[in-house]
Amino acid sequence: MMTIKRIMMFLLLAVSVNAQAATFYVLRHAEKASDGSKDPALTEQGYQRAANLAGMLANAGIKKVYASDYQRTQLTAGPLAAQLGIEVTSYDPRDLPGLKEQLLKEDVNAMIVGHSNTTPMLVHLLSGQSVTNLDEANFDFLFQVVRQGEHVVVNTLRSAPTRAHAGLTDWQPLNDHWFSGSLTFNMQLNGDVVGQSVHAFSQTDEYYQLHEKTTIEAYKIEADIRAEVSRSKLAPLSLTMTGAMGQPVNIDLHWQGQKVTGHSQMAREPFKPQGTVDIDATLKPGTTERTSLIMLAHLLPVSAEQPLLVNWFNGYDADQRLIDITYEGEEQITVPAGTFDTYKVQYSGGAPSQYFWIDKKQPKVVKIEVIKSPWSYELVEAIQE
After folding, report:
1. Please, is 213 exposed, middle or buried when counting C-beta atoms within 10 Å of its C-beta (0-12, 13-18, 19+)?
2. Is this model's pTM higher than 0.70 or not?
């Protein structure tokens, strides 16, 4: 039986020997150091990833290596360029259309190292296809864009090391942590309150009913979101969204087991499908729904000894991805609603990754922070029914 590594190498070699096909390998830089600088170098794991990439792509017929003019991208591209005996060509990540035209004109196999916000867009420009957005925690995605005339194929590969995904996959929610009532959060941008989000929770004997209403006038956001999930494994039953998120939104999704059908209309990143997306998909067993899992972070059985691995479905754009949920310790925090003794949980890989602070005394979320982002939520009022 062929190993995953050998299968990936077979795929790489299969496209590289076809002289009529130009193949582009588009990726984000490897893991960067958290040193507070605007131009950090790589971490030890990042250097290892760059070396692994050089080995992975050594026989892919690459003639050009591109990287933006930052340490983290140049250092990621460097090992392969050195191995091939070619120079790293710098490009302006603010001019992706210009880079696309240059790549198509050269029409040779190339590796292009960019950033979490530029890599999906470049893949879209080269292929015309939609692609998943990258999270702060995603460093192992390697998009292979194979062009042969007007025919384009996009393969999603992974570089080593991949995320461990060592968490528990078969779990039950902590239903005794259920909170009936409402939580009102201040939404903050760079520490300034710009809006409010109210999360309401109710239940029946079989399922939980969730209602989120978020208002940010300055950004023309007035969203009304409703979801239902089963009390067993938080299996999704329905998701609706009306109002506006800068533009009108209209989401209506329903589940029958792992079968989800409906539609989603909202503004999305330019490398995503635009307008109304019809959804008719069969999801992997155990797949949860993104909005519900965020609102119900206090029900997840995560601990220092046992992280979780969850597959979730994003009804906004029909994206599916694996989420690592880890316990990050205990912390006393103060928010407008008071001072709470909390435990901290991280959702990693969710595009975006997020931190949740959960009240230990009366389980509920009291603070949410979007990692590497100026956005945060702080509890203002909790009303228990």
Report:
1. middle
2. yes
